[in-house]
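Dear support,

I submitted the protein below through the web form. The confirmation email said the job was done, but the results page showed an empty box. After a refresh the structure appeared. I'm attaching both so you can tell me whether what I see now is the final result or a partial one.
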Amino acid sequence: MDNDKKPAVDEVIDETKTENEPPVHDTEPEVIIDETAPEEPVEETPTAPSAEPAKEVTKKKSFLSRFSKSQKIGIGILVVAIIAAVVGIVVLGGKKDTPASVSNSKKDTATADTVKTKPSSDDITVNGNTYYAKPTEIKDLILFNQDECTGTEGCTNGRNNFTKSFLVGKTKDGKDIIAYRASGGIDAADIIVIKNGSEYEVAFPANFAKDYSYFEAKPNIKTSSSTSLSELTADPTITIKEQPLKTSGVLTFAFLRYKEGTNILEVQSPEKGTKLITKNNIDYYVGEKDKGAYSIKSVNAYFGDLFSYNYSLDGELSKSGSKAAETIKWSKGDQSTSTYYTGGQGCGTGASFVAGKVSKSDLSEVGKTPGGQTVYQLANNQPIVTELFEKDYAKENALDDYKNLSLQQFVDKHSYFLIENGLGDFMVYISDKAAPKGGCAKPVVYLYPQKATNVSVSVGANVTISDPLYPTGGWTNVLAQPNGALTYQGKSFGSLFWEGQGNGAYPDITSGTVVARSKAIATITEQLKQQGLQGREITEFISFWKPNLPNTPFVRLSWLSTRQLNELAPLTVLPKPDTTIRVFLDFEGLQKPVNMPAQTLKTPKRNGFTVVEWGGLARNGLNRLVR
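What the results page shows now:
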């Protein structure tokens, strides 16, 4: 069972232009003229103002003078009625399609100052704030220096093509609510801003100034706002059908996806899956990806079709750092020394889990968890067992006494088991000794203060290996010099090193560079420079990862960004650095090249106290790295 997610295939829907209202024409009613009617004398009024030539005015007066008094009254009534009808259509049509604060737009794109949208019965109004069912794109808005670019490649009118902004609603006091995706190269931020006159205020996330300090805001941007959009905040933890769930609290734009096989972002409705519950105007769904013998499921919360949060399981075995699986009481009385994982990929805990397509009648009870959950296994001929043994089991490279097992030995050593979660799915757990899980491999931290400074560093991950030894709470009182030299507990170091599992969800890999293996090192070197690394940072990265590249004709190179790493394994440095650069390589060996959207890499400026960290994914487990 491949625990690494493949690039998601996003559905593409065309953005539909807003239809214009039909034009209203001022026309006179068609009148049948009685040519025999006597003409009335025309009174000339030389001083009467007119924008038309005198002959045209005289002609009109002569035309009207052909009618009798009663005819004139009838026509007058008809004209008044028509005018009233036209006015009614315009007024009523405007009220139907356009709120007082928003007028119609000819297109679904506009400038930041003129963007408008139409209301819909699917709009959501909460706490007096209205969110539109259909976002309207704003094409010219640039809020951060990173979003500017020159030239033509990857740019449109001076703005990075990755940068997107949309009018998504109005506050109760009539201010625009704008969804803005900032670029920052491979770094990105989905933020919500409030347009307050000529200024833009970041309303969501509330901690933007802290977590996204590497974005350089334009002068008209405020990194906080007095406007509260509390309705967009999802519960950090929730229990659905007896299944505890948790979220990192990172809001993303659910309506914005890549066009398949390209790096073009398009508006499209998200595929949500099966609805579980609604709470506080937020809908919770479970989505499923069919993988044949098994399926991968994930729980997401949605605010309409606009915004989403990802949830991960928080049960007895799936809780981050849980050791419950190691102390399962097996029915045969034997003991397993292995740790287990489910559905996670990369070096994160994973927000998805693996659910076997089985029923209880297919299962045999083989043990109990410390919390009393029943542990199951399947008959050896079941498709899931076959796939686990033939595809996931690292027969020759397994750890300890898990090497070169037969199928029955694989089963007898409890290399896998199933439990039922609160949502009614049977989760598949596999031994990390039989199928080593990917890990965050050798993240190396460099500290460059402007003067000699005592620094504390901690990482939000399950650290398994470190140098110097990583104590509970992290490294404290590390004396850092401007040249990067470190002194810790009386010993000298050039950097801080750790390995382990992150506590956040490992992101989907949807873009990257595919190169021949012979060109991989040169490409990596250049891409490290593009992300702001230099000197020994690049040299040490290449020295470690060169022997660990897959021996295949082609290699895919994808970089996780500072933002993604901050969610996967948060790095806390005190005093707070002015610049943080974190790069992480996810690579994969390929037998033939594949098409992938390219990543945009930008070089951040090193200002003040700078922290640099690099690392990479040990796809086949930390214990199989060449060191």
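Response: this is the final, complete result; the empty box was a page-load delay. The longest strand covers residues 579-590.
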